[in-house]
Amino acid sequence: MPDTSKRFIALAVVGLCGFGAWKLGTAALDWVSTDERAGVEHFENQVWIDRMPEDERDMIGHLVFVNSRDGRAGAVGRSSMWRHFVEIFLWNREGNQVRVYLPQERVRAEFKVRTWECEGEAPEPFTLCLEMTRGNRAAHFYSREEWVVRPHAEPDAQVAEVTGEYPALAGVYDQAVTGAGNSLKMGADASLEGYADAGDGWPLASLED
What we know:
The protein is an alpha+beta fold and 209 residues long. 22% of the residues lie in helices and 33% in strands. The protein has one domain (3-207). It is built from four helices and eleven strands; from the N terminus they run αββαββββββββααβ. The protein is globular, with a radius of gyration of 16 Å.
């Protein structure tokens, strides 16, 4: 994998550490989890991107839905190594139906989501696929099994592990962690009342296929 790709994935993963200590809640039904039955087994606490960057200035879409003991928040945006556009949102899920709340615009929208293992089907090096649909519109993202936000990893330890050979970027990661962490703390106490329905709109416009 090119160094630029590694650096971007490191930035995406480490930035999410600031959301706090994750607590994955899984419920089993016989030997098959309810998430697996709903087709969303890899949905939460997974780093998703729309493609691999071609170089350090290539802007690509990224998405994560974080399930934390402090609540549920996420981040969506487009980034390169040098420029970042990120929006924080709140969310909840029932089965494969996800409702997203965007505090900046004060709108909410529902999506149908599906994840599946897709090695060989997806472009290399991806092994997981995510499809988000709303009406007749869709967005697709890709990931790998190891691109997760681990529930019990300390932020500093994950920074060290992910950055590895890129210590000069640690300061950038630290700023991303701080900003993301503050957003989740604010979102944990935020009311989900008073959000207008997005109607036929696609609130994640920058990520639409």
